Amino acid sequence: MKGKRNPYIAREGIPFLLLSFSLAWLAFYYRELPWFIAAIALMVLLFMIFKDPRRRIPAVPLGVVSPIDGRVVDIGVTDKAVLHGEALRVVLSINSLGTYTARCPVEGKIMDLNSISTEKIIDYQTNALWVQTDEGDDVVLQFTGYRLGLPPKSFLRFGERLGQGSRCAYLRLTRLAEVHLPIDSKILVEPGQRVIAGKDVLARLPPH
After folding, report:
1. Mean pLDDT, range 110-136, rounded to an integer
2. 99, 88, 100, 73: which is closest to 194 by C-alpha?
3. Number of H helices, E strands in the chain
4. I need a surface site. Which of 15, 81, 163, 182 has the fewest CB within 10 A?
């Protein structure tokens, strides 16, 4: 299964870390202690923001893993899902100092939302990732609330297959994530619960 593999740091953050390291080296070379301390503090902060630790994905058949590090803030039924029809919706508040990379909730194939006629989409958003499992279940990961105006950035293409918990996008300081599930799925978390990307199971898809 395809998915970006990073050496503990998201590749998008490596240039910023190199820049902060260069500033720290220059401050040390010229014996500018205040600037050296500031550069080191900046480097630590950037490391916390861009960290992308490896995760051991649980072997849970039909399980839907959390795409982000954060907290469950809402669970309910929506008739305004990205795809047509009702869906269960799990809303997650993203921890800004959690993992920088979003994980795919399920194993499956990335589908193209633009391939669906517009009259079948109630609330189409371009910031959504649609994954269809081998059993035909549709799971949609959608992001809202961008800090500094930076939307998430996917590094995968339509038609590619992903494993459960595989890296799929850079979060880029996004505030909220929504996971839309088939209406007859079983939710396994509750509001207020903290979750870890790629490890904690949010729900179980209906058996076929």
Report:
1. 71
2. 73
3. 2, 16
4. 15
Q: Rounded distance, CA 13 to CA 6, Å?
A: 11
Its sign, for the CA torsion 191, 195, 200, 206, is positive
Q: How far apart are CA 168 and CA 154, in angstroms?
A: 6
Return the minimum-mean-pLDDT range out of 19-23, 32-36, 76-80: 76-80
Q: In what order do the strands lie in the sheet with 101-103?
A: 101-103, 167-170, 153-154
Residue 51, both tokens: 């960290």
Q: Which of 112, 113, 125 lies closest to 178, judged by CA?
A: 125
- Provide the 8-state DSSP code for 105: S
What strands, in cross-sheet order, belong to the sheet with 63-65? 63-65, 201-204, 186-187
In tens, the pLDDT along 20-33 reads: 999 999 999 999 99
What is the band of 84 on the pLDDT scale with cuts at 50, 70, 90?
low
Report the distance separating Cα 82 and Cα 20, nearest Å: 40
Q: 192, 177 in Cβ contact below 8 A?
A: no
Cα 53–Cα 67–Cα 149 angle in degrees, nearest 5? 90
Distance separating the N- and C-terminal Cα atoms of the chain: 23
* Residues 6+ away with beta carbon under 8 Å from 135: 62, 205, 208
pLDDT per position as a tens digit, 141-196: 999 888 777 888 888 888 899 999 999 999 988 999 999 999 999 999 999 999 99
